[in-house]
Amino acid sequence: xxxxxxxxxxxxxxxxxxxxxxxxxxxxxxxxxxxxxxxxxxxxxxxxxxxxxxxxxxxxxxxxxxxxxxxxxxxxxxxxxxxxxxxxxxxxxxxxxxxxxxxxxxxxxxxxxxxxxxxxxxxxxxxxxxxxxxxxxxxxxxxxxxxxxxxxxxxxxxxxxxxxxxxxxxxxxxxxxxxxxxxxxxxxxxxxxxxxxxxxxxxxxxxxxxxxxxxxxxxxxxxxxxxxxxxxxxxx
Length: 236
Known about the structure:
With 236 residues, the protein is mainly beta. The protein is built from one helix and 14 strands, in the order ββββββαββββββββ.
């Protein structure tokens, strides 16, 4: 698991009983504070149990970010009918918030998929604390261990430690609500620490969550006549 996952800016999990759900959609607002500057990005996300994900970003230009478990990525710009295509592990939806939810991987936050194993578990003050470490030869890089805390079987904290054993990032999950029998956190707050002893704070709010809806975006396909471009357009 690469360090880009340390921020976990959009983390949603569920109990195993919700694995029967097939689709989730939501409005997403991400507010980031870095170097004293605040940025806000809004989008809508549509994800299926197979890991197919379409995220519609507001902006100038607006665009669709489409990816899957294999890391096949397309950025489609409807105004100009242009598409940027790439494929990288970083693009994979394996660590997507809704994919974790739909696939019932909340017990370890998907860590086993990235080469981690459970090394310890303890109950403290009614909280279940689990520690995971990377397997030898795994693709996990730059991380020595991961700590997860659950309350009433719901994850409320996850922390990543770098190769020196120093806390590199932490995320708090809160504002849980029930959707069709499934408890989901509607708010996450992530803090990523930098080498300059500074930090980046990311707050993600999920609203208007729809489970197993039949919205057109779940069936969206990039037009066959879309013109291929070599680089994605810059958001303004």
